[in-house]
UniProtKB/TrEMBL annotation, chain A:
It comes from the Bacteria. It holds the Pfam family BPD_transp_1. The chain crosses the membrane at residues 82-104, 208-228, 240-258. Signal peptide: none annotated. Keywords: Cell membrane, Membrane, Transmembrane, Transmembrane helix, Transport. NCBIfam families: PhnE. The lineage of its organism: Bacteria, Bacillati, Bacillota, Bacilli, Bacillales. This is Phosphonate transport system permease protein. It comes from Paenibacillus aquistagni. GO terms for molecular function: ABC-type phosphonate transporter activity. Belongs to the binding-protein-dependent transport system permease family. It is found in: Cell membrane. Gene3D superfamilies: MetI-like (1.10.3720.10).
TrEMBL record, chain B:
It comes from Paenibacillus aquistagni. The chain crosses the membrane at residues 20-41, 80-107, 128-151, 186-204, 216-235, 241-262. GO terms for molecular function: ABC-type phosphonate transporter activity. SUPFAM superfamilies: MetI-like. CDD domains: TM_PBP2 (cd06261). GO terms for cellular component: cell envelope; plasma membrane. This is Phosphonate transport system permease protein. PROSITE patterns: ABC_TM1.
TrEMBL record, chain C:
This is Phosphonate transport system ATP-binding protein. GO terms for molecular function: ABC-type phosphonate transporter activity; ATP binding; ATP hydrolysis activity. PANTHER family: AMINO ACID IMPORT ATP-BINDING PROTEIN (PTHR43166), PHOSPHONATES IMPORT ATP-BINDING PROTEIN PHNC (PTHR43166:SF6). Gene3D superfamilies: P-loop containing nucleotide triphosphate hydrolases. The keyword ATP-binding applies. Keywords: ATP-binding, Cell membrane, Membrane, Nucleotide-binding, Phosphonate transport, Translocase, Transport. It comes from Paenibacillus aquistagni. Coiled coil: none annotated. It holds the Pfam family ABC_tran. The keyword Cell membrane applies. One of its GO terms (cellular component) is membrane.
C-alpha cells in the first residue's frame, strides 16, 4: 500500500490520554494493598490454616441424621418467620412504592422524602436490624419477623416503584381524560399493569428471606440460626453439618417452587 | 327491555384451581401466625425504643475518633477494607468460573453445566456460615471475614458474569477467527472488550452488597464495625449504638451514591 | 508456506466440494470452481441457495463434508491448528453485520486484523510494532475514516462501520477478500460507497475478491465474473456480459433484481 496520497502525512487524530486509566489502576492497587494490610490478610495464614479447615470438614461428616428431630420445630419457625415477614413487608411496600414513583406522585416534595426514607431503610442489613429488635423486644421470633418485615419493605418497595415508573402511560392518560381521580387511576390503570410484577418481587423477596431467617438466630431472633451457636459451641460439628444440609435443602426447594410460580406469573 | 348480554357472551367462570390456591394460602397463614409466641415480649420495649431513638439523636460523638484504640472511624475503615478485599478476591475467582460455566465458551455442555451447579451451590451457602468455617481455619478477625465474603460472592458474581458472557455478540469472534487469530487472541480481542464493562458494573454492585454484609460479620467475630455494635447493644450503651448506626448509614449511603454514579458511566 | 507455487496456479480452487448439514440439509453439491488472482467475483442466488456456506467453506469457518479446497496450492481442508490460522491470515472476511467490537475504538478494531501476524503475548499486551499502527492508519485513510480512529465503533453509522471492517481486512494484508452480503443492511448511498471501496481495493491492490450479493444489478455493476447458485449447485458461471436478465429468468424462473427480491422477502 505504497500510495503516496495515503502516506503518513494524512493527519492522524491525537490519541486520547491514558492518564485516567493509569491513575485508576494505581488507585485500585493502593486500595487493595491498604485493605490487605488493614485486615491482616496473609496467604501464609490461609495455607497454614487450611489443614484446620479440612479437619473441620472431616469432623462434619457424616452428618448426624437423627438431629433432624431436634431442629425440625426451629426450621418450621424459620419458614413462618420468612412468610410473615415477607407478607408484612409486601403490604407496607404498596403505599410506599406508590408514593415513591414520580409518575404517580408528581409532587417533588412528596416522592423525594419517601425515596430518601426508602434508601435509609435499605442501608441497614437484616441481621443488624434483628440485633436491634432483639435489644428492644427480647429474644424470640418476633424481633426476627420485624427485621424481615422492614428488610422486605425496603426491597419490594424499591423494585416495585422502579417497575411503576416503567409502566405504559397510555392507560393512565386515558383514565385521567375520562375524569378519574387518583385512586381510580391506580385501581383501573396501574394495578392491572403492575400486579404480576409485584407478586414476582414478593416471591423473590421470600426466597431471600428464607436464607436470611435461617441465620437470624445467631443474634437471638428466632429460627434455626440459634442452633449454629449451640452446636458449634459444643464442638458438635456433625450436628452443624446437619443444620447446613437441612437449610440448603429447604432453600433449594423454596427456590424451585418460587421460580416456577414466578415463571407462571410473567 | 334490556337484552341479556349473557346470551351473547357468557362470562368466563373463575377457575376452581384459583379457589384452591386461596384456601391453601389462607391455611398457610393460619399455620404461620398460630406458631408464633406473642407472649414473653419485654415490657421495657417502649422504653428501650425511646432510648435508641434518643441515642440516634444524641449520639456519642466522642466515639467517632479516639486517639488510641477502637473507634468508629477505624471500625468503618476495617469494614470497608474487608469488603474491598472480599470483592477483589471474588472477582478474580468468578472470571475463570464464568468462562467455564458459559455454554458458548465451554467445549461441552457437561463442563458448563457443572460450572453452573458449582455456582448455585456456593450461592445457597450462607456467608455467615462460611465465615464461621473460616474462623476455624484462620482464627477470628477480619481475615476470616474477607475469605467468607470472597468465596460467598462468587456464587452471585459468577452467575451474573456467566449471563454476561452468554449474551455476547458472536460476530467479532467469527471475524477474529477468519483473520487467523488463536483462542487466546479471540478471547482478548473479541470477547473481553464486550464483557468488561458488564463485569465491572456487576463487581461494583456486589461491592455495595458486600459493604452491607461486612457490617454484620462482627456478630460472629469476623471483624468490622459489627463487633463494637454488638458489644454496645449488649451493654445497653444506646448513645454508642446510635453513633455506630449513624456511621453505618452514612458510609453505605456514600458508597451507594459513588458506586451508582460510576456504574451509570460504565454502561 | 515454503513449497513451490506455480506462477499461473489458481488462487482458490474447489474440487468436488459438498456440504451436508447434520440435519441432512444439503448446503453445497459437487462444486468445482477455480478463481484466479485479482478477479472480482460476485456470487448471486436467492437466500438459502448456499452463498454464505460457499464463502465460509473457503476460509473454513464451515467444514465441508466432501472434496477439497486449496488456497494458492495449499489445502485448507486438511490444515489444522497453526497451519490453518496462517492460511486464514491471508483471507480477509467482511460480514453483513460488520462484526466489529462495538465498545472498542475504531483503531483497535482495525489492529485486531493484525493479531494473526504476531504471537499471543505480544498482541495481548497490545504491543503492536510501529509498522502495524502505520498500516492500520493507512487502511483507515484508504476508507476515509482516519479522523475516527479513536472513536468508539458504535458511534459510527452502519456504512462507516462496514468501512472500518474493510480497513481491518486491509490491515490484515489479506490476499483474498470474502465479503458476505456486505451491503445488505445499508441504504443505497452507503451501499455505493462501500462497493466503490471494495472495487478500488481490488483494482489497486490486486486483491482477489469474492462477494455475495442478492442483487444482480449490483453484481453486474461491479464484478468481472458472476457465479449463480441454486440449492447448493453452480447454475451459472461466466463473465458479466453473459449474465443477462434473460439468462437468469431462464435459470431461476425470474430475475434477481433488487425490487423482485424485495417482493419475495416482503
Amino acid at each position: 500500500m505504497a500510495d503516496p496520497k495515503l502516506s503518513l502525512s494524512a493527519a492522524r487524530p491525537t490519541p486520547p490520554s491514558r492518564m485516567k486509566h493509569y491513575f485508576t489502576l494505581i488507585l485500585l492497587l493502593v486500595l487493595i494493598w491498604l485493605s490487605a494490610r488493614g485486615t491482616d490478610s496473609s496467604l501464609q495464614e490461609l495455607v497454614q490454616g487450611f489443614p484446620n479447615m479440612l479437619e473441620l470438614l472431616r469432623e462434619m461428616f457424616p452428618p448426624k441424621w437423627s438431629y433432624l428431630d431436634n431442629i425440625l420445630p426451629a426450621m418450621l419457625e424459620t419458614i413462618r418467620m420468612a412468610l410473615i415477614g415477607t407478607t408484612f413487608g409486601a403490604v407496607l411496600a404498596i403505599p410506599m412504592a406508590l408514593l415513591c414513583a414520580s409518575n404517580l406522585t408528581r409532587l417533588k416534595w412528596v416522592h423525594y422524602p419517601f425515596r430518601f426514607l426508602l434508601n435509609l431503610i435499605r442501608t441497614i442489613p437484616d441481621l443488624l436490624l434483628a440485633a436491634i429488635f432483639v435489644a428492644i423486644f427480647g429474644l424470640g421470633p418476633v424481633p426476627g419477623i420485624l427485621a424481615l418485615s422492614v428488610f422486605s419493605l425496603g426491597l419490594i418497595a424499591k423494585l416495585t416503584y422502579e417497575a411503576l415508573e416503567a409502566i405504559d402511560q397510555g392507560p393512565l392518560e386515558a383514565l385521567t381524560s375520562t375524569g378519574g381521580n387518583w385512586i381510580q387511576i391506580i385501581v383501573y390503570s396501574v394495578i392491572p399493569q403492575i400486579q404480576a410484577h409485584f407478586m414476582s418481587f414478593t416471591l423473590y423477596t421470600f426466597e431471600i428471606n428464607i436464607r436470611a431467617a435461617a441465620i437470624l438466630g445467631l443474634v437471638g431472633a428466632g429460627g434455626i440460626g440459634h442452633y449454629y451457636e449451640v452446636t458449634l459451641g459444643l464442638l458438635e460439628y456433625e450436628k452443624t453439618s446437619m443444620i447446613i444440609l437441612f437449610t440448603l435443602a429447604l432453600v433449594i426447594c423454596i427456590d424451585v417452587i418460587s421460580m416456577k410460580l414466578r415463571e407462571k406469573l410473567l | 327491555m334490556t337484552p341479556s348480554w349473557k346470551s351473547i357472551v357468557a362470562k368466563p367462570k373463575p377457575k376452581k384451581s384459583r379457589w384452591l390456591l386461596v384456601i391453601a394460602l389462607f391455611l398457610l397463614y393460619v399455620w404461620a401466625f398460630m406458631g408464633i409466641p406473642y407472649s414473653g415480649l419485654k415490657d421495657t420495649a417502649l422504653q428501650v425504643t425511646r432510648s435508641i431513638a434518643e441515642g440516634l439523636f444524641s449520639p456519642d460523638w466522642d466515639y467517632v475518633y479516639l486517639p488510641d484504640g477502637e473507634d468508629l472511624l477505624r471500625g468503618l475503615l476495617s469494614t470497608l477494607y474487608i469488603s474491598i478485599l472480599g470483592t477483589v478476591i471474588s472477582t478474580l475467582l468468578s472470571i475463570p468460573l464464568a468462562f467455564i460455566a458459559s455454554v458458548n465458551m465451554s467445549s461441552t455442555k457437561l463442563i458448563s453445566g457443572s460450572g453452573k451447579m458449582l455456582l448455585s451451590f456456593i450461592r445457597t451457602f450462607p456467608e455467615i456460615v462460611m465465615a464461621i468455617l473460616f474462623i476455624k481455619a484462620v482464627g477470628p478477625g477480619s481475615f476470616a471475614g474477607v475469605l467468607a465474603l470472597g468465596l460467598h460472592s462468587v456464587g452471585m458474581l459468577g452467575k451474573l458474569f456467566t449471563d454476561e458472557v452468554e449474551q455476547i455478540d458472536k460476530g467479532p469472534i467469527e471475524a477474529l477467527t477468519a483473520a487467523g487469530a488463536n483462542r487466546l487472541q479471540i478471547l482478548w480481542y473479541a470477547v473481553l472488550p464486550q464483557v468488561l464493562p458488564g463485569f465491572l458494573s456487576y463487581t461494583l454492585y456486589r461491592f455495595e452488597i458486600n459493604v452491607r454484609s461486612a457490617t454484620i460479620l462482627g456478630v460472629i467475630g469476623a471483624g468490622g464495625i459489627g463487633t463494637p455494635l454488638i458489644f454496645a447493644l449488649s451493654t445497653r450503651d444506646w448513645d454508642r449504638v446510635g453513633i455506630i448506626l449513624l456511621g453505618i448509614i452514612v458510609m453505605i449511603t456514600i458508597i451507594d451514591i459513588l458506586s451508582g454514579a460510576i456504574r451509570k458511566r460504565l454502561i | 508456506m515454503t513449497h513451490h507455487r506455480p506462477e499461473n496456479a489458481a488462487m482458490i480452487k474447489l474440487t468436488n466440494v459438498s456440504k451436508v448439514y447434520p440435519n441432512q440439509t444439503k448446503g453445497l453439491q459437487q462444486i468445482h470452481l477455480s478463481i484466479d488472482q485479482g478477479e472480482f467475483v460476485a456470487v448471486v442466488g436467492l437466500s438459502g441457495a448456499g452463498k454464505s456456506t460457499l464463502l465460509r467453506a473457503i476460509n473454513r469457518l464451515h467444514d465441508i463434508t466432501e472434496g477439497d479446497i486449496e488456497i494458492h496450492g495449499a489445502s485448507i481442508t486438511r490444515a489444522e491448528g497453526r497451519q490453518l490460522r496462517m492460511l486464514r491470515r491471508d483471507i480477509g472476511m467482511i460480514f453483513q453485520g460488520f462484526n466489529l467490537v462495538k465498545r472498542s475504538s475504531v483503531l483497535r478494531n482495525v489492529l485486531a486484523g493484525r493479531v494473526g501476524h504476531h504471537g499471543t503475548l505480544r498482541t495481548i499486551l497490545g504491543l503492536f510494532p510501529k509498522q502495524d499502527v502505520d498500516l492500520a492508519f493507512e487502511a483507515l485513510a484508504r476508507v476515509n475514516l482516519i479522523e475516527k480512529a479513536y472513536a468508539r465503533a458504535d458511534e459510527l453509522s452502519g456504512g462507516q462501520q462496514q468501512r472500518v471492517a474493510i480497513a481491518r481486512v486491509l490491515a490484515q494484508e489479506a490476499k483474498i477478500i470474502l465479503a458476505d452480503e456486505p451491503v445488505a443492511s445499508l441504504d443505497p448511498l452507503t451501499t455505493k460507497q462501500v462497493m466503490d471501496d471494495l472495487l478500488h481495493i481490488n483494482q489497486e491492490l490486486k486483491i482477489t475478491t469474492i462477494i455475495n450479493l442478492h442483487d444482480i444489478d449490483l453484481a453486474r455493476a461491479y464484478a468481472t465474473r458472476i457465479i449463480g447458485l441454486r440449492a447448493g449447485e453452480i447454475v451459472f458461471d461466466g463473465p458479466v456480459e453473459e449474465a443477462t436478465d434473460e439468462r437468469f429468468t431462464e435459470i431461476y424462473g425470474r430475475t434477481l433484481r433488487a425490487e423482485s427480491v424485495q417482493e419475495i422477502n416482503a
